[in-house]
Amino acid sequence: xxDTDVPLQPRKKGLTRRQKRRLSRGAQYAVFVAAVIVxxxxxxxxxxxxxxxxxxxxxxxxxxxxxxxxxxTVLYTVSGFVLGLLLGLVIALMRLSSVGPYRWLAGVYIExxxxxxxxxxxxxxxxxxxxxxxxxxxxxxxxxxxxLGLGLIGAAYMAETFRAGIQAVPKGQTEAARSLGFSPARAxxxxxxxxxxxxxxxxxxxxxxxxxxDSSLVLLLGVTLEERELSKFGRDLASTTANSTPIxxxxxxxxxxxIPLGFVVRRMEAKAQEAVx
Amino acid sequence: MSRPEIDVRAxxxxxxxxxxxxxxxxEVGRGEVVCVIGPSGSGKSTLLRCVNLLEEPSxxxxxxxxxxxxxxxxxxxxxxxxxxxxxxxxxxxPHLSVTENLTLxxxxxxxxxxxxxxxxxxxxxxxxxxxxxxxxxxxxxxxGQQQRxxxxxxxxxxxxxxxxxxxTSALDPELVGDVLAVMRMLAHEGMTMMVVTHEMSFAREVAxxxxxxxxxxxxxxxxxxxVIGAPAHERTRHxxxxxxxxxxxEVEEERSDRAGGSDR
Lengths: 277, 264
Prior knowledge:
- Helix content of chain A is 78%, strand content 0%.
- By secondary structure, chain A is mainly alpha-helical.
- In chain B, a hairpin with a 2-residue loop joins strand 9 and strand 10 (217-222).
- Chain B contains ten helices and ten strands.
- The chains are: A mainly alpha, B alpha/beta.
- The interface between A and B is medium-sized, with 19 and 26 residues.
């Protein structure tokens, strides 16, 4: 770049702003590369490979890790998500209701289930519910309990998402619907919720990813061999083989689903952004 | 004329401490077109929204087609089916195509079948000259086209009364004409219409009566030629002179009689 004289901003001595910026960015890259090198050199790769990357152990996990463990993980997640979606919508509508006790109840629900660790909720379902209601079985056995646990947790988050989405739909939409003779409930179902749903599709997908990971807590319910999901499956195999390879493989299986889902979310966000323009 | 199609009696409306309507009495006969004009904040839009109860009146009575809307036991959804409303911001349903915008209310509210609703939708799209946009989505239409779809949507419900709330105020100037043409057509067909507008030429040409509102009351009510052409009140004259020639307005003190009802 040729340095021409800019009369209004005479050259001061030392570096220009642009040069300073470039220098500071270069320093950041250097620090990052140095950290990676230090990490790579100081780690004992041989022992890591022994513990985490035994190919014969990994091979022995297939096809069960997919046909059983991943399948169960997806099953638990999807059933929990569907339940959470329905319950979350009801709670969001209660939260927006003009009836005081509904709003209050919904608020309490959200605070409790968003505030408690998912682990405690699963312990509660696995232990407290059978104690409190002896003899009663939750429909669907482990699958039902898993859906209930994940659904209760998901509903708290999704209720807040739904509420934000419903409030983002312009008031004129409800007014137009009401002026055409829609009842308040019909206006909500036919006009507002479909629009809210489009707005919240990206955050809703993020909640699906969250539930996908939380499904690992199903192991707290006490599962049979056939009901194991990825985390339990990986840990069981890790203890029988005294090697951690199965955990790595199970982890990769999670990423196999979450990374494409994350990609879908970004695509939807970009599309929504474009629609606004 | 027997009973009026729209009958507003001693209507009051307050938002908190702000009294927007201070006793409105207005009758609109069957087939009559009444244009409501007035400065912003005069309460004209609020009056219109009280006629289909989008705003709950604080006092007084509203009758449409002989039914009292202000009766606490009234089936408001049933009454609203007879009252079409067109908004300044169109308020089309953006997630539905033009045809679906027209068919959804018919099917959900009137319980019409799919085929009948589609037929009525097509007829009304043709009336507003937009048959070729049947499958388009609202976002791809111009403001004028959206507003005509909104009118068609209201007409598809077979209303006896149409309310227009500044239907051309959000439009680019060159698109205003198409919307006014549709409204003129409706007026000639004998629709009972109440129009809040700033389009003086439309009011003068199409309206049977012009009502001038200011400060939450009706100041003048009469023949368009008289109210617009030779207003009897100073407030009307003042408003019209500012409207017809905005560049001539002088910087002036805020007048005390308008201060109460601003911006609602």
